Amino acid sequence: MPVRHNPGTMPGARAATSGAPSRVLVALAAAVLALAPAACGAEPAAPPPAPGPSGAPGARSAPTSPTAAAPVDPAVACVDAVLGRLDTRGRAAQLVMAGVPADGLTEGGRAALAQGAGGVILTDAAGGEASATQVAATVREVQEAAEIPVIVAVDQEGGRVQDLAGDGFSRIPAAATQGRDVAGLRADAQDWAREMAGAGVTLDLAPVADVVDPALGEDNEPVGALDRGFGTDPQRVGRAVAAFVEGMEAGGVATTLKHFPGLGRVRENTDFADAADDVTGVDDPGLASFRAGIEAGAPVVMMSSAVYEKIDPDRRALFSRAVVTDLLRGRLGFTGVVTTDDVGAAAALADVPVGERAVRFVQAGGDQVLTVRPGDVSPMVAALAAEAADDPDFAGRLEESARRVLALKADRGVIGCEAPPTGR
């Protein structure tokens, strides 16, 4: 089943849909849950008795034909087909997203794509002035060089964080300004998304769902000092987050909630220093904004690189199973793709070898490793593949994440599969 670019959406994203989770991702979540016991080495649970004619839970229904089979979702079958032809190294590569300048594919970017990188993030090497025409040309170069069509991401929050700001892209106000008009934000986000999708962008690494502690204000370096947050009230922030997610989706671009479980209570920016939060717990009111974004249909959540002392004092959030798996997936019920913040240049991770950053993240339950440095792809892929070769449980974890990344691609129209000819 050959993989192809979806001609209706490349460049650009899929047609606009509602904010509800897609059938591909819902079916994938069910498949992952069904496979989870086997991946952990446990015996699968026996199915509950089928209800009888009266609907009583203990009654048995009439036996069904042994040849009866549930219908196969073509999109899920496509993901299975692509996954099945990837070896361990290929699956590992699908988990890595590398930086590529928005104004043209570099040799470093080509090398990363030759390694099988599953995604790219367009960076503002042109000072943010790359035009929509230039970006579209870069995306075409990227997709032509890719082993498997890639997710194309960009940091397009607005204000001081807008990597695409050249001709053809609107100047987006800072989130602090966006949050003042929640009613109009959905329509604005839809317009911004259409511009991005027209240039081939698949995924926006926004919105910031962090709720800034009003006692910190601008002393909160990663969010408050840069006007990156929608406000200080979790419910109001949640409404703005949902409006942004729904508007982007209506315009054809997927969104990323960041930085889970929130950077609103730290002082330091993890891009430049270690950061710790000694307040946020598993029942924190500030998590409401992330819940709102998940309910609105955001398919990706980005992890914070800070330490949360009341949840896991010994590990940064992106390396913590207590945060990624137990809190985000367990308590908040998120079934989509979990990504890192940039782990290439982040000062907070300088003490962790490059390949080990990817391994620890996947061990914690994460899926997609983001680095702005394309040279990081090779050591990350090598480390992931080596760990999978040594540990069958990790190999299962790697497959689960590769499946999620491929399902996101299928859902966004990035990949498709040609149906076999009829009569065969």
UniProtKB/TrEMBL annotation:
In terms of InterPro entries, this protein maps to: GH, Glyco_hydro_3_N, Glyco_hydro_3_N_sf, NagZ_Beta-hexosaminidase
Q: Where is the composition biased (Low complexity)?
A: 56-71
Q: Which reaction does it catalyse?
A: Hydrolysis of terminal non-reducing N-acetyl-D-hexosamine residues in N-acetyl-beta-D-hexosaminides
Gene Ontology biological process terms from the UniProt entry: carbohydrate metabolic process; peptidoglycan turnover
Q: Could you tell me the keywords of this UniProt record?
A: Glycosidase, Hydrolase, Signal
- The enzyme class is hydrolase
The record's region (Disordered) falls at: 42-71
* GO MF terms held by the record: beta-N-acetylhexosaminidase activity
Pro residues bias: where?
A: 45-54
Asked if the Swiss-Prot or TrEMBL record annotates the protein with the keyword Hydrolase, the reply is yes
Domain Glycoside hydrolase family 3 N-terminal residues, every copy = 114-407
Q: Which residues form the signal peptide?
A: 1-41
Q: What is its EC number?
A: 3.2.1.52
Q: What's the family?
A: Belongs to the glycosyl hydrolase 3 family.
Protein name (Swiss-Prot/TrEMBL)? beta-N-acetylhexosaminidase
Species of the source: Actinomycetospora cinnamomea
